[in-house]
Specification:
The chain is an alpha/beta fold. It is built from 11 helices and 7 strands. The protein has helices spanning about 30-35, 60-75, 85-100, 120-135, 135-145, 150-155, 155-170, 170-185, 210-220, 235-240, 240-255; strands spanning about 5, 10-15, 40-45, 80-85, 105-110, 200-205, 225-230. Helix 2 (about 60-75) packs across helix 3 (about 85-100), helix 4 packs antiparallel against helix 8 (about 170-185) and helix 5 runs antiparallel to helix 7 (about 155-170). The longest helix is centred in the middle third of the chain and has 16 residues, at about 120-135. The structure holds D-malate (MLT). The site of D-malate has 7 residues, from loops.
């Protein structure tokens, strides 16, 4: 079973799925701020943080299945609000496809519906080779500057340090396996018009990995979806602008039908 952090205990379940190459720890400021209103559960996806590695071939779909299994283990009876950032967003889309009955609402943050392009896949292969020939740390060092927006990199060395530390603590195997899962993930564009639950799309305006255009594609193709753009934030918008991020989530949930 996936390891997880939980807080709150009462209120609507809010499940938060983290980005690559991080852990549930990236949601610390959401867990602290939102657990007075929600039952917040933040799992470590397979291989990351305290969770063990994939037992079968690594895939985004398997991540979604393990999240569903965790909800069963936790006896979460009602449909959940599922929020995922980037890789966590891919897993959230897979969850929406596999377990629509378990969903109350979706929050897709700094993510995209499209599969990797051939060039993107070739780059994943290079990164996997780097993780194997050198280390996962070498991958993390290349990734971190892309994860954060220019504003954060210029003004918030503490955030750069925290994100780097979190990435460097992950194992070589976890990093290589997640890269395989990211490379091989299915295209979810076709799924978007089938999503029936209220959906919020969030993107940092300085996100260079999954930019505004990717968020617009999500919001335009999911019926009734709302789009929120967070200023002065890059790809890790929840860490870079936590208060704005948390307020957007609260407002969205308060307006749920
Ligand atoms: C992530 O933040 O989870 C990754 O950047 C996702 C990706 O590389 O596609």
């Amino acid at each position: 079973m996936l390891k997880f952090q939980e807080a709150g205990g009462i209120g609507t379940p809010l499940i938060l799925l983290h980005a690559f190459p991080l852990t549930s720890e990236m949601w610390r400021l959401q867990i602290e701020a939102l657990s007075n209103e929600f039952y917040v559960v933040a799992p470590d996806l397979p291989g990351f943080g305290a969770s063990s590695d994939f037992e079968s071939a690594p895939s985004i779909e398997q991540m979604a299945r393990e999240v569903a299994a965790l909800l069963d283990e936790l006896f979460v009876p009602q449909p959940v609000i599922l929020g995922g950032l980037s890789m966590g967003g891919y897993a959230s889309l897979a969850f929406a496809r596999l377990f629509p009955e378990k969903l109350r609402a979706l929050i897709l943050c700094d993510t995209r519906a499209e599969a990797d392009t051939p060039e993107g896949k070739a780059n994943r292969d290079k990164m996997i080779a780097l993780a194997q020939s050198e280390s996962g740390a070498a991958v993390v060092e290349q990734m971190v500057p892309k994860l954060l927006g220019e504003t954060t990199k210029n003004l918030r060395p503490d955030v750069v340090k925290t994100v780097t530390r979190l990435g460097l603590a992950q194992s070589d195997v976890a990093i290589a396996n997640a890269l395989r899962a990211l490379r091989d993930r299915a295209d979810s564009l076709y799924l978007l018009p089938q999503i029936q639950v209220p959906t919020l799309v969030i993107v940092g305006e300085e996100d260079g990995i999954t930019p505004l255009a990717a968020a617009q594609t999500l919001a335009q193709n999911i019926r009734g979806a709302k789009l929120a753009v967070i200023p002065q934030a890059g790809h890790l918008s929840n860490i870079e602008q936590p208060e704005i991020f948390n307020n957007i989530v609260r407002d969205f949930v308060r307006e749920l039908p």
